[in-house]
Amino acid sequence: MKKKLKRLAFEPWGNYAIALAASVQCLNVEPWTRTATTPEVLELGVAASPDSACLSFKACTGHFLEAAREGVEYGVMVNSVGTCRLRYYRMLQQQLLEERGFKLFIFGLGYDGIKPPLIRHFDPRPGPFLKCCVRARAKVLAVDAIEKYAWHTRARELHRGDTTRVLNECLGDLERADSLLDIRRVKESIPVRFKKIAVKKDAIPLKIGLLGEATVLRNRFLNHNIEEILGGLGAEVFNFFLLGEEMKNIFGIGMWGRHSRWTLKRLAAPYLKSLVGGHALDSVANAIRCARGGYDGVVHVCPTGCMPEISVRPILRKISTDMDLPVLECSFDEHTSHLGVITRLEAFVDILNARRTRGNQTWKNRVISV
Fold it and tell me: Is the pTM of this model over 0.85?
């Protein structure tokens, strides 16, 4: 009789859940994850969390509560250092679970020696562990590639929904890919699949950058599917939280790259003199990058009450004034109206289109580079 594996729950990280699931196969556990939060999960988290907690905390807490109810034994979440309250979230969530009689234990992936506690606990053999890491990284990069093609194509598609359908088909094939060869085949098929989508040949869509707190940027339920809404309005988006680039920063690889921590600090230096935690540095630096790169505007998203992102909003307004870059601020909590989000995005897109119509037409020749 086959031994039943213990399960490990991840907090939702959008389509990266596919890669995260592949990353734990060497630990002899079964991954338990979702690509997005559900209304029921958020309701669980809201009921259990302090009112002052941010939306990301409530969604993650609800996710672990749902996992614990299903008998999942372990969970894992990202830790933090510095001023962001994320550094305390694992301990608070563990306490909330224990108070409700659940035995799910949450590991943190923080700065804790050479081996994170999760790896120390399961102690996988080096060979299988490295193979899992390589396979997971390949899937992360494939997700990045799929999404970039989707962002580009959705703003130009002739028939609404074609891009999302192809996106989901590619992600499904990637999830089923078990070897590096299979992953490479999926990745090589991505351009061909998206090129088959009928598009408006002469379309020159708006270019909008998405900046802000990583969880909300990547959880389509929490951000009310902002990428698809803007794409449907004829805007090509670029979500600046790319896990492939973030992994390079975490492990100190590619420190001179365009998305490296050193490059971001250098870009943000005229406006941000000290670090305030979270992804606030990324928000400031990438707003400057958008202004210099000819973006029509940016949308800054964060959970209501997120200290790092709220701290830099005055800076983003200064950048907006200095560099003539429209910035839409969107804060999200459990009470945020979906129709309200759509209305604000529609109004923002209308404003950007009006700026193009009455402004200097040299925008047609701008080179967009990120």
Answer: yes
Shared domain check, 166 and 26: no
In this prediction, residue 1 has a pLDDT band, given cuts at 50, 70 and 90, of very low
Tokens, residue 150: 């989707």
The torsion of the CA quartet 150, 152, 156, 161, rounded to 10 degrees, works out to: 10
Residue 363 scores a pLDDT above 50? no
Whether residues 215 and 276 fall in one domain = yes
CA atoms of 21 and 173, how far apart (whole Å): 14
C-alpha span between 250 and 154 (Å, rounded) = 31
pLDDT, position 82: 61
**Cα–Cα distance measured from residue 130 to residue 23, given in angstroms and rounded to the nearest whole number:** 10
Instruction: Note whether 331 and 226 are same-domain residues.
Output: yes
Least confident stretch, 150-154, 268-272, 296-300, 354-358: 354-358
Q: Which of 99, 23, 49, 105 is nearest to 72 (CA)?
A: 105
- 15 CB-contact burial (10 Å; exposed 0-12 / middle 13-18 / buried 19+): buried
Range of the domain at 80: 6-123
For 95-146, what is each residue's pLDDT tens digit? Answer: 999 999 999 999 987 655 556 788 888 888 888 888 888 999 999 999 999 9
For position 338, what pLDDT does the model report?
96
The CATH code of the domain that includes 235 is 3.40.50.11900
- The single residue listed with the structure tokens 């020696």 is 113
Q: Are residues 31 and 179 in the same domain?
A: no
Q: Among 150, 358, 136, which residue's Cα sits nearest to residue 239?
A: 150
Q: Is residue 283 part of a domain?
A: yes
202 — phi, psi (to 5°)?
Answer: -95, 5
Q: Are 307 and 323 in contact (CB under 8 A)?
A: no
Helical H runs in the chain? 17-22, 39-48, 55-69, 86-99, 117-122, 126-154, 162-176, 180-195, 214-218, 226-232, 243-250, 261-268, 280-292, 307-323, 338-358
- Report if residue 138 sits inside a domain: no
